[in-house]
Design a protein that fits this description.
The complex is a heterodimer of chains A (about 150) and B (about 170). By secondary structure, chain A is α/β, with parallel strands linked by helices. Chain A is about 40% helix and about 10% strand. Chain A has a five-stranded parallel sheet with strand order 1-5-4-2-3. Chain B has one domain: Glutaredoxin (3-Layer(aba) Sandwich), CATH 3.40.30. Chain B has five helices and seven strands. Chain B starts with a helix and ends in a 5-residue tail after the last helix. In chain B, the strands form two sheets. Chain B has a five-stranded mixed sheet, covered by helices on one side. By secondary structure, chain B is an alpha/beta fold. Classes of the chains: A alpha/beta (about 150), B alpha/beta (about 170).
């Protein structure tokens, strides 16, 4: 009996721990789904394997730190959002696209929402937001993932 | 059964530790603060160690960090209030602002517009700045208070706690 209670307790705690982490990376009204969050480890694996198809990576924040990414600049500024739109206009709707900022946690980042909303409004079908829950230092640089020169 | 209890305890404590003290590793109170030598807006290098003898707040910030920008106004008040004060562990109060900005124009405009009158340095390398690694910065804003000998006396104080943290060293 005690064992059963303990097993139940274990799963309750485990679920709540994971649930908390899930919710922290996606708020209810954000213009992305949980499935659209790309794990940094997964992107790093692709970048480290030149044989695998490479996504088009847009840095929509302060600096293009990630290897091969295109520097758009902070899209909280309208002129930068327009630059992103112009680039996207030239791409097929099913292009494999990844966007990232990495200044701050998503809850405080002024750039991820305008970029993801634009991709959604332009009806792209295969785009992801790089899941950097804390910032690009902690979740990318410190992990030793590939960086731009 | 004991193992289960242990697993539950480990899970609980693990999640608490990771959420509460993301910034606890690295430099602790009582440690000597590592040297920083970075350029100011004018391009001349100012070393943290040049402020030796003072109580110094090392403020890590950036113009792209909203809470940091808000805090600059608070820092301005504290600086003007305490810069001439005598402390038990320093002859005056100084702020050494280290910006993680990427663009010089953003950094310079903010400092000029807001008439920031304490030392401001940056290598304009955003999160790639070596100082972010040296000081094990996990997020902004982040600050460290050091005494006249460069020893860390407090970490990451904000709001009312920051003023209390400075004022408790005032010479009476």
């Amino acid at each position: 009996m005690k064992t059963k209670i303990l097993i139940f307790l274990f799963f309750t705690v485990a679920t709540s721990v994971f649930a908390t982490n899930e919710f922290s990376s996606q708020e209810q009204n954000d213009p992305w789904t949980q499935q659209q969050l790309l794990a940094p480890a997964d992107l790093a694996k692709v970048l480290n394997n030149p044989k695998s198809p490479q996504p088009i990576i847009f840095s929509i924040g302060m600096q293009a730190i990630i290897k091969g990414s295109i520097d758009i600049g902070p899209v909280m500024k309208k002129e930068n959002l327009n630059i992103l739109k112009q680039k996207l206009d030239k791409l097929p709707k099913n292009s494999n696209i990844v966007v990232y900022c990495g200044c701050c946690p998503f809850s405080r980042c002024p750039n991820v929402r305008p970029a993801m909303a634009l991709l959604q409004n332009m009806q792209f079908t295969n785009y992801k937001l790089l899941n950097l829950p804390q910032n690009v230092k902690v979740d990318w640089i410190d992990k030793g993932y590939p960086m731009s020169e | 059964m004991r193992y289960l209890i242990l697993i539950v305890v480990v899970l609980l404590s693990g999640s608490t530790i990771s959420s509460l003290s993301a910034q606890s590793t690295g430099l602790e109170r009582g440690n000597k603060s590592p040297e920083i030598k970075l350029p100011t807006i004018k391009g001349d290098t100012v070393a943290l160690s040049s402020l030796k003898g003072n109580l110094v707040l090392i403020d890590f910030w950036a113009t792209w960090c909203a809470p940091c920008v808000e805090e600059q106004h608070e820092l301005s008040k504290l600086y003007n209030k305490y810069k001439q004060s005598a402390f038990t562990n320093g002859k005056g109060f100084e702020i050494y602002g280290v910006s993680l900005d990427a663009k010089k124009t953003n950094w310079e405009n903010f400092i000029t517009t807001n008439k920031i009158n304490w030392i401001q340095v940056s290598d304009l390398k955003f999160w790639r700045s070596p100082v972010a690694r040296t000081y094990n910065i996990q997020g902004l804003p982040f600050n460290i208070l050091i005494d006249g000998n460069g020893i860390i006396v407090a970490k990451n104080l904000h709001g009312i706690e920051l003023e209390k943290g400075i004022a408790r060293f005032l010479r009476k």
